[in-house]
Design a protein that fits this description.
Length: about 210
């Protein structure tokens, strides 16, 4: 056990297993009893933590959108150099895309199941996250138009969020190698923009950051 890793509480365990099961079999293909069994409690026992599956789905999708935005803002605020800020944004999103693949699948398949207020909140948080990226990319590539920058940012998201489609033959991709590949792909998409430096270094498979 890693002593530096915080112990996962019961709610986090429930959400993690719910995300995995929802992604594998669909929201309506999973019962409360199955989620409970996955974390070692009775199905009815889940109601001490969540009023139902709808609440779990909302917390998963709103929660990850909120965390991505908060982490993105923190990276930009802590890194005044735009090149380093952009690199930090890319690396942070790669970590999400590799480690939280079920949430990407859930967003793609199940977002419309949220009640309207939660769905609007997810979209609002996502727009704000995009704006963090756009602001940094425009500083790095001042010769690009705003439309070009937005297109590039969304292209990067599409590349990085492709991870749920990997490992479909039963073999999990090597994490370090996949992170390096995604980093190179993201840089390639951004380097199509005009007016920027060639200062971002590709993330090789033996690099974990820095």
């Amino acid at each position: 056990m890693n002593p530096t890793k915080p112990v996962e509480n019961r709610r986090e365990q429930i959400l993690r297993e719910a995300a995995r099961l929802f992604a594998e079999r669909g929201f309506h293909g999973v019962g409360v009893d199955e989620i409970g069994a996955a974390v070692g409690i009775s199905g009815p026992g889940l109601y001490r933590h969540f009023p139902g599956k709808d609440a779990m789905l909302a917390e998963l999708l709103v929660g990850i959108s909120d965390r991505l935005l908060a982490a993105g803002r923190m990276r930009v605020a802590e890194t005044p150099d735009p090149l380093r800020a952009l690199d930090a944004l890319i690396r942070g999103h790669i970590d999400f895309a590799i480690d939280d693949r079920p949430l990407i699948t859930l967003h793609d398949r199940e977002l419309d199941r949220l009640r309207e207020s939660d769905r609007k909140l997810v979209r609002q948080l996502q727009r704000q996250y995009v704006e963090e990226w756009v602001g940094v990319v425009r500083r790095v590539y001042p010769g690009a138009t705003e439309l070009e920058v937005r297109a590039a940012v969304h292209a990067v998201f599409g590349l990085l969020n492709s991870t749920p489609h990997l490992g479909g033959q039963g073999a999990e991709p090597d994490r370090a190698a996949m992170a390096a590949l995604l980093h190179r792909l993201a840089l390639s998409a951004l380097e199509a923009l005009e007016g920027g430096p060639a200062g971002l270094r590709p993330w090789t498979a033996d690099r974990t950051g820095g």
